[in-house]
Amino acid sequence: MNDLLSDLKRDRLLIIFRGQSPSQCADLAEGLYEAGVRLFEVTLNSADPLAGITAVRDRLGSDARVGAGTVLTTEEVGQVADVGGQFVVSPDIDPRVVERTKELGMGSVPGALSPTEVVRAVRAGADAVKVFPISSVGAGHIRQLRGPLPDVPFVATGGVDEALAEACVEAGCVGVGVAAGLLGDPADIESVVRGARRLAEATARPGRLRS
Questions:
Q1: Range of the structural domain that residue 205 is part of
Q2: In angstroms, rounded to a whole number, what is the distance separating the alpha carbons of residues 114 and 145?
Q3: Separation of alpha carbons 29 and 39, rounded Å
């Protein structure tokens, strides 16, 4: 089993930094790490995102997994690998991006919404498939996708709150991705940490019900 997929199944919560500076990413990640979060994504449309990835990795060390989001080209994949990124997340499915990501030894999580897109992602070699934007379609969309595609690991992102996070995991997602700004004020680390703890509890509830 791919390590990224193992981590998603174990931790379920992927925190996304979009628009934060490298120092803000590192400070937020440190606070979230102390609260139990281990998966972090810095989107490439943030301020100096490659430095952000480096800052988070330097601050947290090897026990956390740090990757890049909003990756659209194979050139960007190479840039992420060069700074030690461990996985690549995209809003779309471009098989060339997935294949290059895997060639460079990183985890791949492309975005999809329709069954056709999901199958393209899986055939390209994705480790998990990001269902985006989930808030537009709801957790029921995951259940519908899992009918014909029961073995695909789905990660729901896009406007995820506590209720939607719980519903998506209950519907079969291996995890959810949530922007730090949706958890609290990024300028107030404790507010983001409190939001992350609430979300972690929400995503743990379905697992306890099934155990």
A1: 3-210
A2: 8
A3: 9
The CATH number for 55's domain is: 3.20.20.70
The tens digit of pLDDT for each residue in 164-209 reads 999 999 999 999 999 999 999 999 999 999 999 999 999 986 544 3
> What's the number of domains the chain is made of?
1
Residue located via tokens 């809003």: 91
Q: Which residues are catalytic?
A: 41, 130
In tens, the pLDDT along 112-139 reads 999 999 999 999 999 999 999 999 999 9
Buried b (16+ CB within 10 A) or exposed e, 151-173: ebbbbbbbebbbebbbbbbbbbb
Task: Give the pair of three-digit tokens for residue 130.
Answer: 């990001």
**pTM for the whole structure:** 0.94
